[in-house]
Hints:
By secondary structure, this protein is mainly alpha-helical.
Amino acid sequence: xxxxxxxxxxxxxxxxxxxxAFAWSVRSGQYDDLEGPAHRILADDxxxxxxxxxxxxxTPVNPAGVPARTxxxxxxxxxxEMRGRRNLTR
Length: 90
């Protein structure tokens, strides 16, 4: 029962903080236009953005041609797990 002396005031402070945060959000206009963003996402504005330039696609994964480092497998004695740098090839 002694814990109620601590929990009741803490819960009241928490409720007060939540009430203040809600009042601030209402006063600052957070709930003024609930449908606007939903309609704005559906608006047809496909012509608003320029098409990408030719050759502006994705960059290559390995542009320098450096061979990837791989882990050893059971076939080459690596066991399929990384054990320091000796199982890695460069």
